[in-house]
Model the fold of this input.
Amino acid sequence: MREVAILGVGQTKFGELWDRSFREIGIEAGFAALQSSKLSSRDLSALYIGNMASGTYIDQEHVAPLVLDYSGLAGHHLPSVRVEAGGASGAVALHQGYLAVASGLYDFVVVGGAEKMTDVPEERGSAIASSAVDQEWETVFGATMPGLWALIAQRHMHEHGTKREDFAQMAVLDHEHAGKNPFAHYRNKISLDAVLSSTPVASPLGMLDCAPSSDGAAAVVLGPLERARKFTDTPIKISASQIATDTMAVMHRRDVTTLDATVLAAKRAFQRSGLEPSKIQLAEVHDSYSIGGLIALEDLGFFPKGKAGGALADGGLGLGGKLVLNPSGGLKAQGQPFGAVGIAQVAEIVRQLRGEAGDRQVSGATAGLAHNVGGTGATAVVTILERVN
Amino acid sequence: MREVAILGVGQTKFGELWDRSFREIGIEAGFAALQSSKLSSRDLSALYIGNMASGTYIDQEHVAPLVLDYSGLAGHHLPSVRVEAGGASGAVALHQGYLAVASGLYDFVVVGGAEKMTDVPEERGSAIASSAVDQEWETVFGATMPGLWALIAQRHMHEHGTKREDFAQMAVLDHEHAGKNPFAHYRNKISLDAVLSSTPVASPLGMLDCAPSSDGAAAVVLGPLERARKFTDTPIKISASQIATDTMAVMHRRDVTTLDATVLAAKRAFQRSGLEPSKIQLAEVHDSYSIGGLIALEDLGFFPKGKAGGALADGGLGLGGKLVLNPSGGLKAQGQPFGAVGIAQVAEIVRQLRGEAGDRQVSGATAGLAHNVGGTGATAVVTILERVN
Done:
């Protein structure tokens, strides 16, 4: 199969974008990605869209041709495909775009991710978010998304001695980084005390442990690596894109303090890329709940089981460290438009590897990893990106 | 890219399956496809699911890992991906499975399509169906799915002299064939008079011009053609799988009596396969509304514009003819579980090319075509399948 490169990235600001529609944010991100790549829309051969729940958030399915149409590209009659995998919809869509180019059937492909979440009442939003977990075996008994992550947190504390402060630190770090990211939903700093004393959601998780509902879109342009130099001076290679799955319900898992889907996706991705965790200088991990970010650090192989908490508490994962965690601000502070998250993570890594990340630049980064999760880990995707010299 | 073959197919009965859940029908179809292919679940490398609107029909997103999990395969941690493209979700999912195998990253892949439509009240069902067309430019003004197809029919009658009886004949033919298909939702014959005098839905379309809401699932197993003989004596080659798109809203189209997405997907598919319409002995076309089937015959190149009506009225498209249309009974009579339709069409062609279609066998068939549409034609997919000698 052909090697695949990312030629450009684009993104809207994440937040409560009440004055703009789904199609508008999709188009903004797509065109920004095209501009960043020096491709023209005439060069494109397909469009992929990652989106979790447009059918319920905006009463609209079939959103891939919708975005294509309102981009003014309907006349090209390009193939357009929507992909859904809960909060991992973005990275799973990226995987399909990657296969499309790798197969040789398509040359240049835009992969976008978009979600418009803030136009529904909050209770409705919670119900929609929970439709990514098992409705018949979890939600029906009252287990919501934060409730399930809280159970995971409790068990992690019990088994591995993790402290409440350890994962609270994840949110502090995210907000620190997001302050330097103009696309971020929340750019304010927060203190550890603020997280610890935030309104309880599901014990031990407080409001500031939970990523927000956000509107937003992000996009990347993919093409064959061998032709990438024509369109960018700094092509970024997709060294691996790997998906793994697990049971939908948390209770059916071997060990609820580990996401086996993450472990396996990471293992396959490191194997395919020929890299190992120590070669990664920055990682965007899926921290829809702060405990999820902590567990990801362990499951991805950056720290042994039970040791990520200490690493977070000690600091050292911020800018200037050996491994920089969530330079974008992560889901907690950059924001969490479900379908866009996985693409925004990759976009941030590309900006970093290109040296275009401004105040939050990780200096000299050559390899980064993105980790995107659907539900409570029924889907996990690991994408490894490298700068090509 | 590698050539891709279909190694097995499976399907549930289509209909009002009130005693069975989404996950149950998905599993039944998947296992039937595996059995028909002589593969074991251990041979699989990925699962794709085409599904339009599980988020609204059954309040459950993230259905690809759901089906994988309840198949007992969560322990394999296989990648699983849901694809959505309105009523074309099935064929678009098949396209992704095809790319997955063609790329070389995956070897054996199950592609399923499933929808559970009959557990919601009728009015709710209509609203969900209409979420595949442009909510902001069509539905908001009262244009429903049958309303839009009725406008298309009116214009086709006006411009091409098509008669009401011509497309009514499509429904008659479908029911005739479905009588021989044990999977079909409706197995009764209907007369031309019955269609013409059926309850008006949107003039000129009556109730019997409209495909039903159905529950159902279908699945196929894909693998590299070069390894296919190990798993089946009669591998069926995917000679082409092509997607094209168009504007979401009918009013924005060049010509509302033609689906340009169909024309282009067909042109690209015939080009890729090296075949032409005269070499196709059977076709499954997307007749969610009878007029859609008539227009497909023209847009696919089987008849010149304005001539398909006469061909339908004259008969000759039934079993024993040069081109057999919808041997399965089509969407009208086999049924229309949105996500499953495109896979069921392909499954029927595979059964026919393998000589396993029982009473409705098209004798000596070597090449068949499936045509799957999303919305009113914003997505169209053409798949060409050939028997390998």
The mean pLDDT of chain B is 97. Chain B touches chain A through 61 residues (CB under 8 Å).
